[in-house]
Amino acid sequence: MPVIAPWPAARPAQPASVSTERGGADDAMTAGTTVDHLTETYRTHYRSLLGLAALLLDDTASCEDVVQEAFIRVHSARKRVRDPEKTLAYLRQTVVNLSRSTLRRRILGLKLLSKPMPDMASAEEGAYDRIERDELKKALGGLQRRQREVLVLRYFADMTESQVAEVLGLSLGSVKAYGSRGIAALRVAMEAAS
């Protein structure tokens, strides 16, 4: 794992006449990986990094994107890589991390995809549904007022029998009686219509 130094703290400017005794060693530490070194690393190791990404991902375009992004990130952070010899290790780790991120995004995308729509009903099915709905409305219209109210509230408004009783101001027994008689009358009316 490469060692990445924090951003160098700004040092006060020294007069030109003062020479640094430490020399080039300190300058090499703050300089980090040079653009030339990174360019050479790109030329030498691009294909091997692409192969690494290919082992983690399944399509060439994603592999190329990951490797390019890795080089961009290393280029942006090149002054923080203390040892230029560890640039390749840093690149490899970046390729692995970016591949993981790509896979996570794919998995999340698959989870968030909406479920496929069921097959659409054919025009014939829609016509039959409409005919049945029209017949049901007509049959409901032929019921007594209380039977119709109980059935509509119970089955179309999804109310419980006690809720229907409260809404209509009836006893629970009356709601049950109107409901059973209404269903029987509705069944007879629908069979006659068919």
Automatic annotation (TrEMBL):
It comes from the Bacteria. InterPro entries: RNA_pol_sigma-70-like (IPR039425), RNA_pol_sigma-70_dom (IPR014284), RNA_pol_sigma-E_actinobac (IPR014325), RNA_pol_sigma70_r2 (IPR007627), RNA_pol_sigma70_r4_t2 (IPR013249), RNA_pol_sigma_r2 (IPR013325), RNA_pol_sigma_r3/r4-like (IPR013324), WH-like_DNA-bd_sf (IPR036388). Residues 134-186 form the RNA polymerase sigma factor 70 region 4 type domain. Gene3D superfamilies: 1.10.1740.10, Winged helix-like DNA-binding domain superfamily/Winged helix DNA-binding domain. Residues 1-16 have a biased composition (Low complexity). It holds the Pfam family Sigma70_r4_2. GO terms for molecular function: DNA binding; sigma factor activity. Residues 42-106 form the RNA polymerase sigma-70 region domain. Keywords: DNA-binding, Sigma factor, Transcription, Transcription regulation. Residues 1-28 are annotated as: Disordered. One of its GO terms (biological process) is DNA-templated transcription initiation. The keyword Amino-acid biosynthesis does not apply. Belongs to the sigma-70 factor family. ECF subfamily. NCBIfam families: SigE-fam_strep, sigma70-ECF. This is SigE family RNA polymerase sigma factor. It comes from Streptomyces armeniacus.
